[in-house]
Structure formats: structure tokens, C-alpha cells
Here is the input.
Amino acid sequence: MTKGRDKKLISARNRKLLQRYHQLTEVERLRFDDTIKKLSEEEFFISESVVIDIIRKYYKKEDYYSEI
Here is the structure.
């Protein structure tokens, strides 16, 4: 049995985070810095830098973006 975080759970979290990012910035028109803070502190409980890294890495990838 391998140790560490489950890759399926991380992938699911990232998809949800990107969906919420899209919702907050594009639909609700929340500012970027307010969006990052909300995702970090109120919804996913991870650091702002991790939220930004996930957005940078996955937001424009076709497989994630097509689900939004």
C-alpha cells in the first residue's frame, strides 16, 4: 500500500476548485484576490499559494475547462 494523498481525491478537489474559481470570477464577477482568499479560507482550507498553483496548472487545460 502506497503512502500519501490519493490521486483521485486530489484530482476531484482540483476540478471542484476550478469550477468554483470559474463561477466566482466569470459569473459572479468577484475580483481575483477576493476569489483566491475565499477559495483558500472559506471553501477548500488550503493556502492561497496552492490555490494559485492549481489554477495556473489546470485552468486552461482542455479536460478540466470543458467540464466547467
User: Anything to note?
Assistant: The chain has one domain: 7-65. Residues 7-65 form one domain. The mean pLDDT is 89. Residues 7-27 form the longest helix (21 residues).
